Amino acid sequence: MERRLEGRTGNVYRPALITSESGRAFVTQKNVSESGACFRGDVPVQVGDTIEYSFNGMENIRAIVRWCEGDLFGVEHLESAQFWDDASVSHPFRPLRVPLEHFAKISCAEWMAFSSVKNISQSGACLTKPAELNVGALITVELLGLVFEAATVKWVKGERCGIKFARRLSASELNEILIRKANLELRTGFERATSS
């Protein structure tokens, strides 16, 4: 069936995480149907590439890139995809959380400690909780050479806590974090390989 005749079941505007052979990137999902979706973002994909994408914390959806025009590209799902979930209906936008697993320096006026960032989104992050951290605290987070000032601790649960950034990050800022993390991993792997 010609895809243009199918129509789109849902016009959306939500962040999505694309995973391809060249890495991960944040994009904006523009529309979606059971058989495919359209995205806008600076992602090095070509027609025929297989990708995975996720949004709202849902499982990855596998797809093949069918067309590219500038920063727009369309994919065909490899399986019929569930693209609406209960969270999408009751909360049309939920920040996309991306696993990160990288150390960070946490500080406030009285103290400084090191922590591990477990995941990150446009609005905040989840990290291991330094002993001194309490709900409501204003902190500064240094991660991969970037500084996020006036972040607020929103919740504490066991050894983890959630923080909210003072301002929402753009997709390009999140991509910069992923690029820095990937470059660090490549550099570390290269140094290990050449030192042996």
Automatic annotation (TrEMBL):
<dbReference type="Pfam" id="PF07238">
    <property type="entry name" value="PilZ"/>
</dbReference>
<feature type="domain" description="PilZ">
    <location>
        <begin position="97"/>
        <end position="177"/>
    </location>
</feature>
<feature type="domain" description="PilZ">
    <location>
        <begin position="2"/>
        <end position="76"/>
    </location>
</feature>
<dbReference type="InterPro" id="IPR009875">
    <property type="entry name" value="PilZ_domain"/>
</dbReference>
<protein>
    <submittedName>
        <fullName>PilZ domain-containing protein</fullName>
    </submittedName>
</protein>
<dbReference type="GO" id="GO:0035438">
    <property type="term" value="F:cyclic-di-GMP binding"/>
</dbReference>
